[in-house]
Amino acid sequence: MVVIGRNFGVTLRATNWLDRVAELRADTRGALLVEYSVLIGVVAIAGSLGLVLVGLALVHSFDFIRGLLLCPIP
Predict the structure, then answer these.
(1) What is the pTM of this model?
(2) What is the number of structural domains in the chain?
(3) Which run of H or E residues covers position 19?
(4) DSSP string, 27-62
């Protein structure tokens, strides 16, 4: 049984657990939010890992170049 509520959505009212499972499977509200949250999370983790890898390479390169520039013997 589905009852339309005042909260701009659908209020689910199930009489047994099988009906409740069927209603939950049919309820797709929030699916887009979850999809975008997972997508943003994956992109953020990939970006941070790439930044760490590139950052370490840049630090090592900077130390090497700084050592060459400050070397007393040309």
Answers:
(1) 0.51
(2) 1
(3) helix 17-26
(4) --TTHHHHHHHHHHHHHHHHHHHHHHHHHHHHHHHH
